[in-house]
Amino acid sequence: MKEVKIFDSYAFLVFFQDENNADKVEELLLKAEEGKITILLSVINLGEIYYTISRKLGRKIAEQKIEEINRMAVDIVPADKELTLMAAGIKASHPMSYADCFAAALTQKNRGELVTGDREFEEVEKEISIFWI
Question: Whole-prediction pTM value?
Answer without folding.
Answer: 0.95
